[in-house]
Amino acid sequence: MIHPPQDSASSPIDSRRLTARQSAEYFLNIVRLLDKAVDRDLVTTLTFLSIARANMRVFTTDPARAMRYAAMDAVPPDSERTPVTVYAIAKELGIPYETVRRHAAKLRKEGLCEAVPGGLIIPNSAFLYPGMLEAVSAHWALTQDLVNSAGGSATPPISGDPLGDVSRQVVRLGVNYFLDVLALIGRTLEVDALAALVMRAVSFVNIEQHAYAPEAYPDVPVGPSDGEREPVSVYAVAKTLSLPYETTRRHVRRLMEQGLLEKSGGGVIVPERVSARPQVLAGIGELTARTEAYLARLAELGVRPTGV
């Protein structure tokens, strides 16, 4: 688990809240990494990722095939990728069909996506250019940091011989985790993928000072009060997510109209009343479960805390 063992008096909700705080930094670091690797606007990047995830889903569910293509230099041929439709990607991201179609067309024009019978694929060549290879290495470092912060308490000891280079399989699992958490936030708050990212960024900055403090607010399931949350500017959110300022401002305004954000001290916060909603608390429980399942999968691949 990301959180340390709690004493018997601690509430299960408290540990879930701590896990949510700590996993948020990893989530947002992946956003920055993907933005740099794909080097496109965020909607195009999300479209790219969702196509790639659908193409490679079999490689995260079939152990034999997964390990055949687990290493940095082991990229599956195009013929083994499962095509996906624009409609399926739009539904997954909660983004209008025409928007996804336009961004998929942009990827096709730039050679990062191809139309094949049955839908779209991200071709083998897109994963072999230097920026993407650097991203695989950078993702490994980010994931090792997450595992180190978890301390290994949620995962069983590894038996058998080391599995060697599994960096590409770890990326696939990381993309699954990222998109699953993004979808979870969207479902919980009933917003689309971009709005979910904005909410995640605002929420993390609001409580960043408490992210790695298990003793912070041990008796308050929803975390700090509104007055103790650090406001964040629209500009800072845009910079964090590499989104255009106007796009970010538009989403922030809409989220304020929905009552999910409010103004505070020259910026915005996710107010305590939102954090206390039953569906949000339930979502935090699901986030904890997904994070711990992800850590368990990483442990199976031999990704353990440094020194273990």
| Arithmetic mean pLDDT | 83
Specify the helix fraction band: 55-70%
Number of strands: 4
Q: Alpha-carbon distance between the termini?
A: 15 Å
Protein name: Rrf2 family transcriptional regulator
InterPro entries: Carb_Metab_HTH_regulators, HTH_CRP, WH-like_DNA-bd_sf, WH_DNA-bd_sf
GO molecular function, one term: DNA binding
Would you spell out the secondary-structure blueprint of this structure?
Elements lengths: L11 H27 L3 H14 L2 H4 L1 H6 L17 H8 L3 H13 L4 E3 L2 E3 L8 H21 L16 H23 L3 H15 L26 H8 L3 H13 L4 E3 L2 E3 L2 H4 L2 H23 L8
Antiparallel strand pairs: 1-2, 3-4
Helix pairs in contact: 1-7, 1-9, 1-13, 2-5, 2-6, 5-6, 7-8, 8-9, 8-13, 9-10, 9-11, 10-11
Describe the structure.
This is Rrf2 family transcriptional regulator. GO terms for molecular function: DNA binding. The chain is mainly alpha-helical and 308 residues long. It has one domain. 58% of the residues lie in helices and 4% in strands. Helix 8 packs across helix 9. It is globular. The two termini are 15 Å apart.
